[in-house]
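Quick one, T. Sequence first:
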Amino acid sequence: MRVVFLGTPEFAVPSLRAVLNSPYEVCAVFTQPDRPAGRGRKSQPSPVKQCAQSHGVPVHQPEKIKAEENQPVFERYQPDFIVVVAFGQILPGWLLRCARVAPVNVHASLLPKYRGAAPVTWVLLNGDAMTGVTTMLMDERLDTGPMLLRREVAIPEMMTAGELASQLSMVGADLLIPTLDGLRLGTLQPAAQDDSLATWAPRIDKEMAAISWNRNAREIHNQIRAFNPWPLAFTSFLDRRVQILRSIPESGVVDAALAPGTYLGPTEVGIRVKCGGGSVLEVLEVKLEGKSRITGREFASGARLQPGAALFPNDELR
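C-alpha cells:
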C-alpha cells in the first residue's frame, strides 16, 4: 500500500524510517523548505528530507501546502495513507481526502491533552509526571480527530524537552505501523476525543524563556528543562545574558528575607540560588554569551562569587 509522508524535524525521522522498513511503499515525502541554520546561517535541509533522499524517495518542499498547485501532485501519487508527523503546517481538507484509506497523525501527547504545536514543551512547563503519544485520524481542525492507539510515558524529574522528544519519537514510530495495519485490516476502532478535557500547547517564542527568580524553584526548573534545547532559559549576570541549561529544585526553604536571585553557595557541581517563597534551585549547568557550557560551580569560581551576593536580577531579562 502506498504512503505519502509529511514531516520535518528530527522527531519525525523514526516514524519515516519505520514506514520505509515496512511492507508499505513510501511513494513521496513532503517537508518544509530548506531554512538557514547554524552560525553561518547556511540553508539546511530538514532531517526528514535528508532521510528521504538517502532512501531515494521523491521529496517535495512547498512553501505553502494549501496552495492549489499541490493538489494534482498529491492526487497523482494516489496514496492509500497520508502519514503526518510534525510537518509544521495546517493541512487543507482536499489533501486529507486524497488518502484512500485514511490520513494518520502521530502526536506527542495523550490527547485530548496538549493539542497544538508544542506539546513536549508545555507538558514540562506544567510539571506533568506523565505524557505519551497518540496516533489519530486527521480532520480539518487542529489535533481533534478520532484517536487510534496511545502509549503512556513517565517523565523523570530531570528530563529535558530534547530528551523527552527523542523518547516520544521512538514511541510514535513503534505505534505507527500497528496503526496502519489496524486501519488496513479493519481491526482498529477510532475513539472520539472528549473536547471538554482538551488543553492546548501553542507555539513558543524566545521571550517565554526569560527567568523570573521571584517564581518558585520548581516552576523555574520546569522552565529550564522545557526550553532545553531551544530556546534555552536565560537570565543575566553583570549585564550579560546567561543561559541556564540544567537544574534541580531543593526540597527545603531558606530565609525569606533574602532577595530572589541571591547566591547561597556552591554544591559539588552547581550553585544554590534563592527563588520565590524561600525555595532554592541548584543550577547545574550554564552558558555565557559566546562561551562554552560549564558547570554551575565552574561559573561561581570564575566569577569569584561569595555567598549572599545578588547574583541574578529579580525580574525577567527583556
